[in-house]
Design goal:
By secondary structure, the chain is an alpha+beta fold. Helices cover 36% and strands 24% of the residues. The protein has a 5-stranded antiparallel beta sheet. Helix 3 runs antiparallel to helix 6, helix 3 runs antiparallel to helix 9 and helix 7 packs antiparallel against helix 9.
């Protein structure tokens, strides 16, 4: 019995995953959204006539698919630009007037576009540095044997050991020590640098930035109390802190700030990586500007979503001839808007599809924001959304049905908020 139940469960899960419509985050609604839907249904039902219709399987498929197509179109518009006038075709992005000095890595826009910020970078954050002595590369002053030294940070102390042979020169030992430090992943980076006098020095940096001088620094190096031979730290001079690390120093609109790292957040809106200092008296600008590439992508996506919605609806013209009224209304009403959009490369063909000339649109957007055309696109989008929401609210509107009686418009009558329940019942017919 358990095997049978497991098999049935697997079959159910398979068909549920395969047949369940794709959900969107816009399919969930707040309480006020559902209240608006209810009010719209009540308003719609006041003048709805009494009618009879054919309760066939074909009708069920038609109404369900019409509603799903309308929901899909609405969700697509919400995804690409939002459903409010403030969001639609209002793509914006943060910018830096000098990305080589300060790079925008993220932005968190608020309700209103913020004023531009003046950023003056006086100092970048840097790591602690222990720079050793420059020594002759091909000489050595250390006796062969086993050596060790300790590296300490704020939480732990590590002992590193290695062996010096008779043939080892200063450069060999320095490179070996650098590899040893790097391989232990101690939060340090080591390298050997050379100068023009054919000398080499071992340089060690902390991977963390900022000034920690008051807390003992990022790290310390010593061989005063190790298990093997000592003297190597003083010989190479790596105990001496040549730079304790330093904080970034910058000002925003004249107010100075410090940061132990070069990745900072400005005004709670911009994530910025400080890369170079600015010249005195020449701050760079951080702000918000129109993102023409985003606007372009949204217009192309709108056209694609609209065309898909129109094609999906037109497939039912032969099944439910009244659907042709909806398709014709969409086509001819769209002409009113598209006639004013040819200058930005948006046109309509004889089938009602919206076409976008990508090259022309991109060129227009680069030369400046076409405010009038974008306002027309918003009007067109609102028109298409109203038509889609009408089908979403009452998918029975374009069904071929027999009118039995119209309500008397001269006398008050009760609203029937369940006028669209015929559609809801179809969803459960297969279970009855």
């Amino acid at each position: 019995m358990a095997v049978k139940n497991s098999l049935l469960s697997s079959v159910y899960n398979y068909y549920q995953a395969d047949l369940t419509p794709k959900s969107s985050r816009f399919d969930s609604h707040k309480k006020k959204d559902l209240q608006k839907v209810y009010r719209d249904i009540v308003k719609l039902s006041k003048d709805e006539p009494v009618f009879l219709m054919d309760r066939s399987k074909a009708l069920e498929d038609y109404t369900i698919h019409m509603k799903e197509n309308a929901i899909s179109f609405r969700n697509n518009i919400a995804e690409i630009g939002g459903l409010s006038d403030d969001e639609l075709f209002s793509g914006k992005r943060a910018f830096s007037s000098d990305p080589d000095k300060a790079e925008i890595t993220g932005s968190y826009p608020g309700a209103d576009d913020p004023a531009e910020l003046e950023l003056d970078i006086k100092q970048l954050a840097g790591p602690q540095e222990n720079r050793g002595h420059f020594l002759e590369k091909d000489e050595t002053g250390l006796a062969p044997g086993n050596y060790s030294f300790d590296i300490s940070n704020s939480t732990s102390t590590y002992e590193l050991q290695f062996t010096i042979s008779e043939s080892d020169k200063n450069i060999d030992i320095q490179r070996r020590m650098a590899r040893l430090i790097n391989n232990f992943n101690l939060g340090l980076s080591a390298e050997v640098v050379e100068n023009q006098n054919d000398e080499a020095a071992l340089v060690i940096h902390s991977t963390n930035y900022g000034n920690r001088d008051e807390s003992g620094g990022h790290f310390s190096i010593s061989d005063d109390d190790t298990s093997q031979r000592s003297g190597i730290v003083d010989y190479f001079g790596i105990k001496q802190v040549t730079d304790p690390g330093h904080d970034a120093v910058f000002s925003v609109n004249g107010t100075e700030y410090t940061s132990p790292v070069n990745e900072v957040t400005l005004d709670g809106r911009y994530s910025v990586t400080l890369k170079e200092t600015t010249d005195p008296g020449s701050p760079l600008t951080i702000g918000i500007k129109p993102d023409y590439e985003s606007i372009r992508d949204n217009i192309i996506s709108l056209a694609g979503s609209y065309n898909a919605f129109l094609r999906a609806t037109a497939e039912y013209v032969d099944v439910q001839p009244r659907t042709n009224l909806f398709v014709a209304d969409m086509k001819w009403s769209s002409h009113y808007y598209t006639d004013a959009l040819s200058d930005i490369g948006v046109t309509q063909d004889e089938d009602g599809n919206i076409n976008v000339d990508d090259t022309k649109l991109t060129e227009v957007l680069k030369n400046g924001e076409p405010t009038a055309e974008l306002d027309t696109l918003k009007d067109f989008t609102r028109f298409a959304l109203r038509k889609a929401e009408g089908i979403q609210l009452n998918p029975m509107d374009y069904v071929d049905k027999r009118i039995v009686a119209y309500k008397n418009p001269t006398v008050p009558h009760y609203a029937n908020p369940y006028v669209t329940s015929a559609y809801s019942g179809m969803l459960f017919n297969s279970y009855m």
